[in-house]
Design goal:
Number of helices: 8
GO molecular function: oxidoreductase activity, acting on a sulfur group of donors, disulfide as acceptor
Subcellular location: Secreted
CATH architecture: 3-Layer(aba) Sandwich
Low-confidence stretches: 1-12, 17-31, 227-234
Order of helices and strands: HEHEEEHHHHHEEH
Number of domains: 1
Mean pLDDT: 83
Number of strands: 6
Structural class: alpha+beta
Strand content: 5-15%
Helix content: 40-55%
InterPro entries: Interferon-induced_GILT (IPR004911), Thioredoxin-like_sf (IPR036249)
Distance between the termini: 34 Å
Strand order of the largest sheet: 2-1-5-6
Radius of gyration: 18 Å
Keywords: Glycoprotein, Secreted, Signal
CATH superfamily: Glutaredoxin
Pfam families: GILT
């Protein structure tokens, strides 16, 4: 049963690639709305202090939201990335690629998405956090929470308690279950299909995948882009 599913995913990816590269987006111009069509599911597997992940959010995702893509996509951020659980340590502590501060910030992000499930609530907080100077990211949690209407005390309480640990386990399990496995971060998946190194063209994939009315930004000349091509991997 597994092999046909893999073939189906590969065929779907090839179709999306052909449409996206050609710049062809079928449909009639209309105001962005789902029109009864389900939103496009976009999942980001990343980590809090990865510069490429921050760049994806600020330079690729944010422009989409600014151009009216919010109503047609459902965005998820699973904050774990390239972290590993230290099996040799008795407590099984998670070791993050950019150190313990990143582990804490990953928990903060997972708590934000859990406590405030609507992307309109938690995404502005994450965007603010990703804009912080690297060495000040942890200090910016309270600042960004205040600016975006989230309860900083609740975020800290979640991250430091059992709920934060449980969310960390869930993020770890979901990241480990990716098929194919993620090879770097950010790892972006659209309707179950990984984009690989084509993350900067996310908008094209969303435009093609959505069956309802699309934002005007979907209708651009072939070869145009809403975001410039940038390096998109962090493996070590």
């Amino acid at each position: 049963m597994g092999m046909p599913a893999r073939r189906c995913s590969a065929a779907a990816l090839l179709t999306l690639l052909a449409l996206a590269v050609g710049g062809w987006v079928p449909a009639v111009h209309a105001a962005p709305s789902t029109n009864g069509a389900p939103p496009v599911n976009v999942s980001l597997y990343a980590e809090a202090l990865c510069p490429y992940c921050a760049d994806f959010i600020t330079s690729t995702l944010s422009p989409l939201m600014d151009k009216g893509f919010g109503p047609i996509l459902q965005f998820r951020y699973v904050a774990y990335g390239n972290a590993v659980r230290g099996e040799a340590r008795l407590d099984g502590t998670v070791m993050c690629q950019h150190g313990p501060v990143e582990c804490r910030l990953n928990r903060i992000i997972n708590c934000a998405t859990h406590l405030h499930p609507g992307q309109d609530m938690w995404l502005p907080f994450v965007e603010c956090l990703e804009g912080a100077p690297h060495e000040q990211s942890e200090a910016w949690v309270d600042k960004c929470a205040g600016q975006t209407g989230l309860d900083a005390q609740a975020l800290h309480g979640c991250a430091e308690g059992e709920q934060g640990a449980e969310l960390e386990h869930e993020a770890e399990a979901e990241t480990a279950s990716l098929t194919p496995p993620h090879r770097y971060v950010p790892w972006v998946v659209v309707n179950g299909i990984p984009l690989g190194q084509d993350n900067a063209q996310l908008w094209r994939y969303v435009c093609v995948a959505h069956a309802g009315n699309r934002p005007d930004a979907c209708y651009v000349p072939p070869g145009a882009s809403l975001a410039g091509q940038r390096p998109e991997r962090s493996t070590a």
